[in-house]
Fold each of these.
Amino acid sequence: MTVIDRFLNYVRIPTPSDPHAGEETYPSNPEELVLLSTLKAELEALGLTAEMDEYGYVTATLPANVEGAPTLGLIAHVDTSPAVSGRGVQPRIIRYTGGDVLLDERGQYRIAEAENPELARYVGEELIVTDGSTLLGADDKAGVAEIMATLDRLVSDPALPHGKIRVAFTPDEEIGRGTDFFNVKAFGADFGYTVDGGELGEIEYENFNAAAGELVIEGVSVHPGSAKGKMKNAVDIFADFHAGLPRAERPDATEGYEGFYMVDEVSGGVEALRASYIIRDHDREKVEKKKEFFLALAKQIDEAWGGGCITATVKDSYYNMAEIVARHPHLIENAKAAMQACGVTPKVIPIRGGTDGARLSYEGLPCPNLSTGGLNFHGRQEYIPVKSLKTMVDVLVKLVGLYAGA
Ligand SMILES: [Zn+2]
């Protein structure tokens, strides 16, 4: 099966992770197990020993055909972002000839040339796009397909050198729980790569330090006609808090290495309100300052409203993996060399987010992130050039070869 066939099959299997599932539900959406089981069967069909554990993680081993190489892990996630529907995905292959890419028949959704200057690089190429009603799921089914196709090629061609390869397919990455039960020790790889990045050539090993901020606001509800001096509207208290955060430190006002606060979800009314924030910065010191500011602001607004209204908490989610990866420079050097050998210009960029690799790096598996080739993740405008999918397989084959001394 080609990498394209694999990809088209995987995106048709719905796997949105569910941010509202309870802590005890893992994977968050049982549908994810359908794709995970499919992958286990496909790994076995390739002749690999594969396992699915009680949480749904699928792992497999390809034994080495040369001695002395480190054990490499290749990791991708099967779930898709819950931000846009991932059910009923109808991937379409089109030849891009320039201009806007129309997605649905009514012309309501399009990949606009003006907003997507990257399109210019793909004139004359085949693109896999959506029908406008869903996301595509290249994040991260492109990574899954590329890893599967890499194994397929290594199995089919014993002349290609490689050390022991461990593979993992994980659920729930998109809701920040992808590695919650991942057993780094049992996985047993010396180094790893997640294949979960964007446009072809991207190599990422600097990610945000991330924290979650929660506000629980208790108001006092009084009939508005007799509310003077008595009502404490939780929505007003929240509005005061939110207005106190720096406007210039929001996702829509920041880029590169700039951090931010973002309100992610708000629910409630006059009597009670809950708000969830995410707090991000590449710099560890700066993220600590942001966490302190979040709590200090909550205290200040609480006092202004008479006290006892706001409970604020912050909790670290993950850390920047740069300091771990920096101790193993070959991870980046080899990734660059593998890309260059396949005619791809590597581009090291800071991730404005996190990856499973960030957590794994802190748990003992140094794990940068490689491109999948996909663009516009988490939306209807998501697409992936066919050539990028194919090239990433070449890159991964080359990369494992470099670690095997080829
Ligand atoms: Zn992803």
Amino acid sequence: MAKNKPRTYYIKTYGCQYNKADSERIAADYQARGMVEIDNWREADEVVINTCAVRQSAEDRVHGFLNNIKIYLAENQKPKPKLILTGCMTHYGSEKLLEMLPMIDEVLPVNEVGFNYQALRKDKHHAFVQISTGCNSFCTYCIVPYSRGRERSRPFAEIIKEIKLLADQGYTEITLVGMNVNSWGLEKVGVPLRKMLMDRGKKILPSDLPENASQYLKPNGTPPFVKLLQAISEFDQIKKIRFLTSNPWDFHDELIKEVGKNKKIDRYVHLPVQSGSNSVLQRMNRGYTRESYLTVVKKLKQADENITIGTDIIVGFPGETEAEFQETVSLAKQIDFKIAFVAMYSPRPGTVAWRLYEDDIPHKEKKRRWLILDRLINRKHLNERPKIV
Ligand code: SF4
């Protein structure tokens, strides 16, 4: 008797490492239900689209992909696979999404995919390990706190169990993933200013913030994230540890000291600055100043001169004057970043910046600023780009 053909799935992943890690968890969930992953969406029974909403262009790619499916199905008279949308575009809510993208059958909030199964990894040496979900920082331009909700740390024991399993399976490199890895475990410690910011949630305005909130997460004693790094370093089989993404205001002295002395931690540190101008940083609600960012970098270099820094920068944030932009240029020269992910500002509906500020820098000007920074940082270091994962 012929065996039933197993049902198949395909996952299309857009965006950052965080989404890639989520897709590995989603794959594990499918596998546990007896479904088989295939690498051609045209043959799949179910297609998961793990979306990015960081810029309009990222959303446009999702629309383009759905359009391709529509055309293919019409031309080949194929039955429609079940289409499931997850990731950052879920901030629109199911109702709006199903209205915007009528082809979608189901919206899956990614925080509903738990850690019940070990992520299904394709790489056999390097593994992403998620240590937290969501974000409490409410940078004014960012959709993540709305799409992924409040920050929640995965329990220590669960993370260590996963690392042990990976080490036993021969994995040697680990990248710890979270929107703000440095604050891992702090929601249980209870730090007053952070709680105040969380309680204000969506209502937070840039003017509500202290000029420099860089100390607000400073815990008493060894921060939980440092303890986690130390525990992972105990595994002999694990040779390299990376973490993404760090926030400058949480890069406290104890963490700098640990990075300096623990050589299993990669010498490349990714530390998003977004702007070199204090007035822009304040409009972005980034919670640190140019000066406090420079202090973190200086301390990292003092901890180990071999440490290199990479960053994320947004150009053309609302109201960014030429003088403010030049402050970012001068910061880039001062720090000599090895790599920068430079983005042109794109308003995200629902964010504070979208509500409060006019997107008043013309695209041509954003592009000019983008090119200046790309030349200054990325083209200069073309041959020495750090390995990010
Ligand atoms: S820290 Fe800011 S930019 Fe990063 S995910 Fe949170 S809100 Fe977004």
